[in-house]
Predict the structure.
Amino acid sequence: MSTATREGTIKGRLGDSPPRPDGLAKTQGAFAFAGDLSADGFLWGATLRSPHAHARIRGIDLSAAWKIDGVAAVITAGDVPGKPTYGLISKDQPVFAADVVRYVGEPVAAVAADHPETCRRALAAIVVDYEMLPPLFDPERAIDGSHPPIHPDGNVIRRQRIITGDQSLQGEVIVEGTYELGMQDQAFLGLEAALALPDPGGAGVELFVATQWLHEDRGQIAACLGLAPEEVRLTLGGVGGAFGAREDISLQVHTCLLALRTGRPVRLAYSREESFLGHVHRHPATIWMRHHATAQGSIQRIEARLVLDGGAYASTSSAVLINAVTHVQGPYKCANATVDGYAVRTNNLPCGAMRGFGVVQACFAHEGQMDKLAAACGLDPVEIRLLNAMETGDSLITGQVIENVAPVAECITRVAALPLPDAPVGGRDGDPLDLPGGAGLTADPAHIRRGIGWGVAIKNLMYSEAFDDYATARCTLSNGVASLKFATVEVGQGFVVLAQQIARSVLGVDDVVLEPIDTTIGSAGSTSASRQTWMSGGAVDGACRLVRERLFELVGAQYDIEPVQLAIDGRDVIDTMGTLRVSVSAATAGIELVETFEHHHRPTEELDENGHGNCHTAFAFVAHRAVVDVDPELGLVKVVQVATAQDVGVALNPLSVLGQIEGGIAQGLGLAVMEEIIFTDGRVRNASFTDYLLPTMLDMPTVVAALIEHPDPMAPLGAKGVGEPPTISSTPAIVAAIRDAIGRDLSRVPVRPADICLP
Amino acid sequence: MADNEMYALHVNGTRHEVADAWIGESLLYVLRERLGLLGSKGACEQGECGSCSVLVDDELVCSCLVLAASAVGQAIVTIEGIAPHGAPSDVQRAFVECGAVQCGFCTPGLIMATHALLERTPQPTGSEIREELSGNICRCTGYGRIIEAVQRVAVWRSIEP
Ligand code: FES
Ligand code: FES
């Protein structure tokens, strides 16, 4: 290792936007995603799924499948050696349905064979004898008890009320509305995939998998396999996006079971259709709200009833519900509240985490209400929001005081100051692609109407309700090179580059090696809830600081200087009160300084039965303004521009922040005008990219973004998580813009052409 | 598997024998699973996402929609053949520099599509970029940085053709 001093300053420190360490390999097709992994003599795995929403299994005949040439294993519920069920919060979901299937797509059996086509034939040869049971699709029937329990745990997963202040207050101005959201799919591009390698004799198993949380997976898998957690070793397979859909177990246990059963490596990968059935989705919701305000527009009281359809199994429904009810006031002051929320069980697809996690649903409702309130009070959308904007020190309806930086008004005024699109309807050069309907040439520019709408949001960061979602990192410094070890899952967000930036800034090194992301170190918690910059960033920062202390002790002892006098300057350790300057490389030549750090956020509390308690860790804020052009005759929408200002604390990597903002807005746009999983009797009718529409380059508007940077004293690096806020209020902003364009009340997303053009 | 075939494919300038393959296999499957060229990705296997884009006789196609056995005798270029490993193309460099890569699953397909676009239209307008690349879905980036990367390459090439 050369210790020669490099020229210039260190590139790629905090605040810079250095290239991602995995970037070039990804452009060359050389980055290994989970679905690219293979092993000598491997078998393919595949899953048999229920065709019925609710049925009793009377019997399963596997004999024909076993007879097919090339089939190595056929397994069902009886082959699960450990706990028969799993789940993130309550373990209510069977590895394989044993007696009852509760949704179309529920796993019933799995096979391993020599070729994917052999697997398909084997699945087709399995005969399951089903007896139909009455399905439950209507969440209200789950609440009112008129449908018998479809699961031993009952049909209501959780109910949570928030009762705060004056329960009978009536405002001078009252507005109300009912808002509905369809089921959105995360639609990450890299399909679910895993490779399991059995230990000789079945003593353990190694799993390479695309997931969001290695240690949580390991715990659930080990329990189902009847193994100790240390007998199950997980390594992250390259992850092609996640957005919440990989927080739950999907194919993990099945892949391990097949590998242990056959004694051979097994690869299991979902098709796109199977992926729609095989992971949890965003909860469809119906939210009724009534706002009470003074004649001038100050909110005095909110009433709300929220119903979230959790589908057949609990997943994270109870936590999603808590987020929805505790964010339903929006980023606005409000002293009195009467809120009632339900997450229920039905025979629809299970729902759980998706970017925004319950707050997307709440925000669509409260922002619709704000526009109604503005209209009723004779204010414009900006005035009503500024009038009610929350500040640091305000209390939520749960009683929790907002201690974070809370620049709600600043987000709004910054967006208001961003330029509106300078081109008229249809663009300046009459390109049909700039009109609703695009290349279909359906639009008559003379009939197109432009609208502008607003959305503002508050989002909690990290996990809530007394959960200690800590993160662990280890730093090794030797010969002027830092190595970092953590189990933090990289899903595309760019933690890998951020970790390097932190180490360079703290330690004055150029080279930062990243060790494999696996379970040989403590948990990092999940890559979700906008938490990894704060949590794993805090852990990497802590580990690097500990190493730096050791370095200062070492140099101090060598030169007889008090370690507190030492500092890092460029690539050197310097004496701030003297003349010593020694390079970090020289100071660490031939030695190794190693430190591990666990970052814990401050403790939180559970909500009591009246919905009171300091249940959240921290908050971030964001504002969006959307401009749309609408063809009112055909019901087509072109989103022209989305302007946003986001409370980021500090932009540690401005390019990554912009990437999260633009990507999040794309998903918010998808929910606003295109994306919905459509069901008939519990059966998904559009489980493909042909029928489930995702925003393309032609659908994405220009994004104009301003970053609001006030370092948050509570955050380890001053930075707030940035992943979720862009997705949350972009949806209501776009819908408000459509309402503005056509002068019609729209209360459901996605907004469909018929909602716009039919009476 | 029954119905096996033996044929040869020309990929990235090299002839590859494909033995014992089932005739129903797509070009994407054969590239990935039989020839070990894992850079082409499958995200829909329906021609909707562009992750599997390759060039067949200079034409950009979705390899998931092409039967491998039907590409016999044609020149196939995959992401592995677009530039030598140690010398990334201008498009690859621009994607990294501009922040156009997040999870990276869409990236090989977009690199192929961008090369094809800039071959045909060296100085595309914003509208041309959006239209030409609209067959490639990216779920992570919202496309802004990708468009920026394409424009950056066009500028580089105009300065140093
Ligand atoms: S995998 Fe071929 S287009 Fe999607
Ligand atoms: S970077 Fe993830 S799909 Fe494009």
Q: What stands out?
A: Chain B is about 35% helix and 15% strand.
